[in-house]
Amino acid sequence: MRLLYTNSLKAYVKILMFGGFILAVSLPSVAADYCYLSDSQTTRKNQLASQHKLSITSTKIKANDNKEENTDSFTINKNGKVLYQNLIELCVTKQLDLIAKKNNKIGVINAAGQLIIPFMYDSIYPYGETFVVEKEWLFGLVDRQNQPLSAIEYYFADYTLSQAEENPLVPLIGYKKLGIIEVDNTNKGAWGSIDSSGSVVIPFIYDEISTISSLSYEETTGVYKVKKNDYWGVIDNKGNLVLPVHYQRINWFNAAKKLYLVIKNNQTHVIDANQNVRINGDIEDISFIDIQEERKLNIYDYDGTLRPAIIRINDKYGLFDSNAKQKLPAEYNDLSYFYQDDLLAAKKDDLHGVVNTKGDWIIPLVYDELEAVYLDTAHEDLREVKYFIAKKGANYGLLSLNNDIILPFEYKSMNHYNLDIPNRILASRVITNSLNSIDKNNVKFALLTADGKSITPFIYDKIVHDNYDSRTHVWQKGKEGVIDIDGQILLAPLYQSLDYDIVEDGYIFKREGLYGWLTDSDYKEVIPAMYDEPFEFEEGVATVIKDGVTMSIDKQGEVITP
To answer: Cα separations (Å) of 378 from 371, 400, 465?
Structure first.
């Protein structure tokens, strides 16, 4: 056993280590967390005053150690008569009992002002009509006359004790010390539970008892998982066995439907309370579909609805609903969520399609490539899928959400950059020549709307969106220019190169073998193409070379005299 001390809610806490488990218990203190909820305490004190003529006053007393904070000393009066004074710490329970400390020990005073539990315990917690009491780090139960209901021989965690008043029908799960293991001088014991009458509900025979967790958090459902000899099972709160103790691991898949995610013989399955296997195969990963991609390990959505799951089994993906019913068999190379309209991108044997979360196919699994086109009319990354760029064979086309062909499969390339160029597609196709014949090498690019309408004609040799200047660059006959997302020409394609200076907000351009400078605000050539080498500005000054002579200039092209 190890003892650790730390400050917690005006009291010290000792942490007991037994059999590798931590059990935190308060040293002499009224100590339940709810005692420090000022609103409930104020209400209860007012009830005592109005209904039982019991009033509580407090005064500050100076701590003996200057390093400690001053504390409150409480006095209890009834009809103007002092009943108790010099009480350090005081808590009013739901039943209007007063748990208080005097001379470093804890007792209980009822609403009539009678001392029903003497000041003799290290801590006291209300538990229904009874009290959990602590002496020398061990816990037991007494009734309202301080008559023992159980031996003082248990260890209970702080969380269990603090919840005892709120859940008097739930048994107290804890640890019972059985002796000392002489080999390493550690404590030997077992886990079980007692109820508010002191009766053993779950026998103290288990190596560990805990609530069953889902993939992301613990859920209280009236059943617990128990461990014995390194294997887990499930019991109810009366100690009845729900699942036998022969699993390597147990979590919830769906607590509402009593579906468990278990590992047995190194294989992961989903089973029901009757041990029927609901999802077979070796489950490797579960991802509950989440539009905001924040709760992928949680079967519950923010509104409490249950979500379907993408499950990887034997390195293949399938789709299952919250009842573990198969919507798509685990035979796909990939299933991924589009974050909108409950649509999934599916891939199988290098072919792509789109399916909804009910397992209905929206776009058949026949395309070599498939890319969602997101609409963002508000320019706030509010993405909505309406179209898909699809590749079949060597060509690309545009499909609607209903699998209608918007643009035929005759394009050499199609790209969509939602965040960079909202609601736009960059496309290329083979253009017929003046003799109306097709030249496969005559490929031209254009800017299209998300629904396939032309913004620019197919006249450019290349179109690239530049992330540095957030503009669309175009090329014609080897010369570079800039257009906006509406196809308007900002810089005609006259330049051998355009290099954006993100610090100085302009372009170093090259034309006819010489370099100059233009601004990105009005696209005017401030410094004409006259320098032999590319240059860059630093704090408004650039070093340039002209006809072999090196000099310094400012951003207006004026030579700076040394």
So the answer is: 21, 21, 20
Length of the chain: 562
| Three-class HEC string of 240-289 | CEEEEEEECEEEEEEHHHCEEEEEECCEEEEECCCCCEEECCCEEEEEEC
Check residues 519 and 25 and name the one with the higher pLDDT: 519
Q: Lay out the sheet containing 361-367: strands in order across.
A: 334-337, 343-348, 351-356, 361-367
Q: How much is the mean pLDDT over the chain? A: 84
> Using an 8 Å Cβ cutoff, are 402 and 363 in contact?
no
Alpha carbon distance 190, 160 (integer Å): 17
Across 143-147, 175-179, 238-242, which has the greatest mean pLDDT? Answer: 143-147
Residues with Cβ within 8 Å of residue 14, at least 6 apart in sequence? 3, 4, 5, 24, 25, 26, 27, 137
187-190 long-range contacts (CB < 8 A, ≥24 apart) are: 187/1, 187/18, 187/19, 188/19, 189/18, 189/19, 189/155
Say if CB 267 and CB 248 are below 8 A apart. Answer: no
Interstrand relation of 200-206 and 186-194 (parallel, antiparallel or unpaired):
antiparallel
Closest CA to 289 of 261, 321, 317, 260: 321
Q: Would you state the pLDDT for residue 423?
A: 86
C-alpha span between 212 and 226 (Å, rounded): 9
pLDDT (0 to 100) of residue 300: 58
- What is the rounded CA–CA span in Å between residue 109 and residue 280? 58
**What average pLDDT does range 348-357 have in this prediction?**
94
The torsion angles phi and psi of 228, rounded to 5 degrees, stand at -150, 125
Contact 515, 533 (CB under 8 A): yes
The 10s digit of each residue's pLDDT in 69-119 is 557 899 999 998 999 999 988 999 989 999 999 999 999 999 999 999 999
Q: What is the pLDDT of residues 478-524, one digit of tens each?
A: 999 999 989 999 999 999 999 998 888 899 999 999 999 999 888 99
Give the number of other Cβ atoms within 10 Å of residue 86's Cβ: 10
| CATH number for the segment(s) 281-360 | 2.40.10
**Percent of the chain beyond pLDDT 70?**
82
With a threshold of 0.70, does the pTM exceed it? yes
| Pairwise CA distance, residues 463 & 469, whole Å | 14
Domain boundaries, the chain: 1-206, 211-275, 281-360, 368-489, 496-562
Secondary structure class of 477 (helix, strand, coil): coil
The label of the residue with tokens 């545009």 reads 398
